[in-house]
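Task: sequence in, structure out. Protein: Translin-associated protein X.
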Amino acid sequence: MLLCSSSAAIRRISVSWLIMANNSNFKSHRLSRSESSTKRPGTMSTHSSLKDAFSSYADHLNALNEKRERIVKASRDVTMNSKKVIFQVHRISKANREEVLEKAEKDLAAVRDQHISRLVKELQGTDFWKLRRAYSPGVQEYVEAATFFKFCQTGTLLNLDEINATDLTGELMRLAIGRISDGEVEYSERICQFVRDIYRELTLLVPLMDDGSDMKTKMDTMLQSVVKIENACFSVRVRGSEYIPLLGSSDPSSFLVGVSDAEL
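Result:
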């Protein structure tokens, strides 16, 4: 009788353990399923946020590239029309001085109103320094045209804190050679002195500039312009009018314009 009772008790305990084990496995299975179900939306959310981020970056880069293209186009228009002003001023002589300067002044104002203003509008609200390579050539050409016109009009530089005077000296060299060809030696000598002054002042400033600046290269070009003007003025003073025909015509496109006496 006792043996039967013990066997029954053991069976009840075994059944209880089996039930508890099954319940435990079931709970752990439910827990793992619930954890996986909670993790899955998080993973999907992460992928979605990354996709949105890359889409945002792509939109930003596309907008920046489109803006750069518009700025490059505007800069080219500024460059082209500024060169036209420079060519217009190069036609100056004693006979047509007022007419040429009046036309050049109107053309320069048109460059500001039509093209520079468009460039400024594109650069508003942006980090303009990131796009400086896109618009720098046009701005430099405009400053060159404006300073060249100002010198021919008043004999002075523009009243600005920073101007690109290095490119101006190349145009002044061509102007000086052209004026010598027309017999205006005194005017060419004034140009020569003016270019010397610019070069002397910039030799004090350029060493303080950043090493990445291209001003040091431009200073070498400026020195060449100074030497060419000096050689032309010196040769006219020494050899007289016989030297003037060697300089070619006053047309800036003449192949002899700017060629020194030694090179001839």
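Confidence is low (pLDDT under 50) at residues 1-6, 248-264.
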